[in-house]
Amino acid sequence: MSVLYGEVAPDTPPVHLVTAGFDPLRDEGESYAGKLRSAGVPVTAVREADLPHGFLPFVHLGPRFNQAVTASAHALRRMLG
After folding, report:
1. pLDDT digit string (tens) for 12-31?
2. Which of 30, 40, 43 is nearest to 9 (CA)?
3. Domain assignments of the chain as residue spans, ordered by start
4. pTM above 0.70, yes or no
């Protein structure tokens, strides 16, 4: 199953999409960002090129993980603000 095969709902809210450089789903995620943009959805897409897939729980393993998670938290705050 892939979100790329579904329809984009007309009321889809703005999206902050994060992919990782070492991520088997990176290309699919970035294609999805393009699909959303084509449907008129505001998208902020970020590639954390030096991080692995699923890096969120690693936030305490080093400053780089924390930096990426903090940036996404700030983006979410701006979108909800």
Report:
1. 999 999 999 999 999 999 99
2. 40
3. 13-80
4. yes
